[in-house]
Amino acid sequence: MATPRAERSPAATQVIDWRRARLLRGARIMAGVLVVLCVIVLASAGTVRATVLSRGFYQGVLDEERAYDRLYDEVLVDPESQPVARSLLARLPVPEAVVTANLKTVLPPATVRELTDSQVAALLSYLRGDTEALSLSVDLTPVLANLNDLLQVHLGGLASGAGERSEADLDAALKDLDDALDDLAAGRKPDLPRVELSDRDAEDASRLLLSSVPKSERDTLRPQVEGALAVGDVATALAAVGPHLPGTTAGEGDSRASLDLIRITDGGRWNIAEDLQNSGVGTGPLERARGFTHLTLQVQVVAAVTGATAVAFLWLFGARRRVHRLRNLGTLLTTGGALTGLLFLLARWRADSWVWTPPGSWPPSLAHLVSDLERTGARSFTEAGLFAALTPLSAGLLLLAVSALWERRAASRRLAPRTRRLLLGGVGAAVTTTTVLGPVLVPTAATGSTRVYCNGSAELCDLRYDQAAYLATHNSMSSTTDKFISPLQDADITTQLDNGARALLVDTHTWERKDEIAERLKLSEYAPDMRKRITGLIDEASPARPGLWLCHAICRAGAVPLVETLSEVGEWLDDNPGEVVTMIIQDRISGDQTASAFREADLERLLYTPASDPGANWPTLGQMVEDNSRLVVFAENGSGPAPWYRNFYQYGMETPYAFKEPGQMSCVPHRGGRNKKLFLLNHFITHGGGSRIDAGEVNSRGFVLDRARRCEAERQQPVNFVAVDFANLGSARAAVDALNAARTP
In the predicted model, is pLDDT for residue 724 greater than 80? Predict the structure, then answer.
């Protein structure tokens, strides 16, 4: 006969009765509801903090819609946007078409990105509750600083675009020069004579041009003007004196434009919020959004504490068997995750109806851009919310699966009771922690953190250094700004970097003695007549000075101090932490002297050391930016002793550089031979020095792209460095951007 089942103890009966009490059942239901609600709140608040309150979210939306490219290519060139361009930019003494064509000079992409980031930061500060009032204002100081650059570009372009004609009569030529000065000062395209002048005639022409310049400026400009006129280069002579003409549009227009802009922008700052209000765009939606967004952190904390408390209550006072408590918890998490997903699916379905419609007075291109950004932002937001919903949903399904397996597998019964309790408790704690933290972390992973930009583009970060293309300025230090005789660039090195140059081809020298001038000139690109004339000009114009210099062939024809210029490059790199710059040095000083100069300029911290094997793979631009090793330095002749100072032609190859006319430009191997990882395209005309007029032709986007692609096909290697003279003329930078856009890792 079977033994009767033992009666339950009174204590056990009390526990069972206690767990079945009506009040406790109601408390468990309430705790379950709280768990579901807390899951929804945590996922939603976490999504808001990782998207609406994250800089990376806005940067991702702007990049996905190509907002910066569309700003230049669509909005700012839209005829209906011209009133804005006239108001802010066309106060310059240049035609409106010139302003439009040179928008990237006045508003470089790096400046626009920086200004946008500052507005995003101000908006986030308001939405987070860090500031009480919404303050959106743009610091136009960078724009004001670029006004003179645009004037310089315009003067150089005016002179370069002028027609050439022979003029044997000196008196007529001088009259034409006088007329050209008047045209240039008024912003009109001058009709320039191009003549072969004798020494006496060149002096007369120089005297005429310099007579319009303040006396304090004449001595410094004289060698530059006389050197240009010695070879009949009237364009460079006019570009040199143009910014110094007193009392004229050319001489004072840039400062007048700056003053006008300062006046209409309240001391150099543009109050965007005020203009938005005046244009009928209210900030009411932002104010209402702030009522929730600045509380998101507190809401998350409260939801996390409440949810964790509710889970602990259900675990302690839930079903008698722990496996049932685990199953119930899984059901609650699954329900919360599913409801969160449905909430964001509903938001995605209704997103188009929430998109704000820009006023009809806005230019269509701007309205389309804003609408596209809103739709992309809404889509990204809901996608992040769906990712956040997956965390509790997945955790809940996992708990349901574990509890089901636990009940079905007999193996689990062989575990000691204490071991089963620990395992079940551990699974429950791990899943609860994941549920609390997951909705915060997953949206961040979905939308990405603050994006990294390399040379102005997030996509370029994935290219290796030897896969990317870079705009290079030939003889970068030889500029009109720094008063070189027969310059090859208009802007100084810092401005060249601002305008998109990412490789600088420079020459290092010590100051030559008078008896060394003729020997140095033999190595220069100057024509024989030019060498003779320069020799007579430079000795009286610039006495010898000690130290290390950046010069073009001879320092008496123009020089900037090496260490000081390197320091300026370092400051620029510090101000632009996502940029990678290369320097290729025609080294007329020793490697030890070069290393000492870089050390004194505090640039060793930024230098990249190439692998000793020229055939080794280069890092990606993203890796170089992350490591802050963003300055690559090569020598044309020597190598070392510093490990970062390598001979360029061990790693790279080039095309010839002594082309006298555009039709001669070829792709045949020159220094460096073939099959090197780096490819330098020498893309300039040398005819008695640099040719400003030819630069306007060969620097055009189509001309650069045609030659680059032809050379890539012939040499079976992508072009890396496109070296040009007068980089401010033409659109070589646009060609380099097109080369990069077509390249993949």
Answer: yes
Which pLDDT tens digit goes with each residue over 378-422? 888 888 888 888 888 888 888 788 777 777 664 445 555 555 555
Please give the radius of gyration of the chain, using alpha carbons only, rounded to the nearest integer: 35
CA-nearest of 712, 732, 600, 612 to 667 is: 712
Report CA-CA distances (Å) from 669 to 302, 459, 545, 601, 707. Answer: 70, 31, 39, 35, 14
**Inter-residue long-range contacts of 129-135, CB under 8 Å, 24+ positions, other chains counted:** 129/290, 129/293, 129/294, 129/295, 134/273, 134/283, 134/286, 134/287, 135/273
DSSP state at residue 505: E
Which tokens hold the place of 601?
């300029």
Distance from C-alpha of 307 to C-alpha of 192, rounded to nearest angstrom: 81
Residue 57 has pLDDT above 50, yes or no: yes
What does DSSP assign to residue 542? S
Task: State the CB neighbour count (10 A cutoff) for residue 76.
Answer: 22
- Fill in the amino acid letter for 85: A
CA max distance for the chain: 141
Tokens of 583: 């320097």
- Token reading at 260: 């006008």
Which residue's entry shows tokens 């006969």? 1
Structure tokens at 146: 């670029």
Instruction: Give the Cα separation of 516 and 518 in Å (integer).
Output: 6
In angstroms, the CA 440 to CA 84 distance is 42
Q: Which of 53-67, 218-232, 595-609 has the lowest mean pLDDT?
A: 218-232
Dihedral Cα 482, 235, 225, 211, nearest 10 deg: -110
CA separation for the pair 520, 554 (Å, rounded): 7
Cβ pair 639, 647 in contact under 8 A:
yes
Q: How far is CA 578 from CA 367, 623, 681, in A?
A: 30, 11, 24
The answer for 475, left when phi > 0, alpha when psi is -120 to 50, beta otherwise, is left
- Strand (E) positions, 548-591? 548-552, 554-561, 581-587
Closest CA to 534 of 525, 561, 177, 195: 525
Beta bridge partners of 726: none
What is the model's pLDDT at position 254?
Answer: 41
| Tens-digit pLDDT profile for residues 601-658 | 999 999 999 999 999 999 999 999 999 999 999 999 989 899 999 999 999 999 998 8
Cα 114–Cα 118–Cα 119 angle in degrees, nearest 5: 120
CA-based angle 94:96:97, to the nearest 5? 105
The mean per-residue pLDDT over the stretch 269-273 comes to 57
Quick one: tokens of 347?
């938001």
Pairing, β 652-654 against β 678-682: parallel
3-state DSSP assignment of residue 717:
coil
Residue 429 CB: number of other CB atoms within 10 A?
13
Q: Which domains does the chain have, with CATH numbers?
A: 24-122+274-447 (no CATH), 150-259 (no CATH), 459-741 (3.20.20.190)
How much is the pTM? 0.59
Q: Between vectors from CA 555 to CA 590 and to CA 519, what angle results, nearest 5°?
A: 75
Give strand pairing partners of 552: 554
